Amino acid sequence: MKKSIQVLFFSLGILLATNFYTNAQVPVDTSEIIRISNMGDVTLLKQQILPIQIWSDMILIKAKVNGIEGYFVWDNGFAFSALDKNFAAKIKLSPLQQKTDIAGTDGNNAQISMQCELGRVDMGQVSISGSPFTIIDFEAMMGKHVKPVGIIGSTVIKKINWKFDFDKNTVTLSLKPFESNGIKLPFEIDAYNNSKILFGLNGYLDKAAIDFGYNGNEVAIPKDALPIFGAAKKSISIGHLSSSVSGLSDRDTSYIFRDFKYCIGDTNTVLPHKFEIMLSSNRNHVLIGNRFFRNYNCIINNTSGQIILTTRKSPINVIPEKKYGAILSVNDGKILVSSFSDNPNINRNADLKLMDEIESINGKSLKDFADPSQIRDYQISLLLKNMEMKLKRIDGKIFVFTPEPDIYK
Asked: Which domain of life does this protein belong to (predicted)?
């Protein structure tokens, strides 16, 4: 399974590997993992329309688990569903008959071990009984007081077809595939609940993971692909670039490209919207997040392996082209400088270092934000208003940043 969150992005997902191990590192029968991945019986008598919310560039849906209600991240990049440990403490889940440790890879490309228990999911009048959940620490991953209490993952998502209307912030659920005009993209779901789509880049074809738990604005690919971009101009970022189930990512250098040729779904299809490519050591596969698809109203027909994209009436929320060059995140209850991009602000504020602790942003301290995701949203709102960002370091020194485009060279 996999997952990641942007510190400008999150990646919550968990990718199940093809090899699974017990704690003693003895290979487990993968047929048992596949059996667990397919557990859950759906009751859906007729199409159901439900409200959704966009929170920190992730889709939230209200659901009940064993009768206890909360908001959940809709995440087809998470192989199972998941509950925050504090929410799970309120719910009595049922153990699997055979205890199985499951190894996976999170959004930082880190190996993690999980165990599953079973519960009932209700979304409106849609019910899934005997659905597998793993328990994760949302506080460690996202910070305190975050809105979602869990993840509706691929074990649930793949059994249903979903029609997202991002203009109205609704989703329609159906057991039958939806039909519509629009751009039609074939995709597949493998035995381990990973959604994949053909993606070509500068003449090279690969399978990309579709991961709605990744809220980055770029298509993320492994750094090994750097040679295929030749002499194309790039922007460089250095630091801890994402957060996932395993916590803050290791320090890394990423490269962002704007000039490239691509195709998706087949060797001919190119979409109308523009996007960037980010190369990172934290990626071992191509990753396409929910913002890529939220440029459109989006049908995901899991039972027939087809995505249909139609034109939105209202645009997706804007990620500003201008940046401050310094990205902030929350770790261990502190606001930290987690990464720098190649931006004119960085030379003007050369005394500010990676992982420096920040006391306040434009006078606002951590306690002034309801949850850590609002720090990301606040930085974006300042950029959209073309306002300065003033950082007060814990030693009292002030650093001033103005909105500037990142440097590509």
From this structure: Bacteria
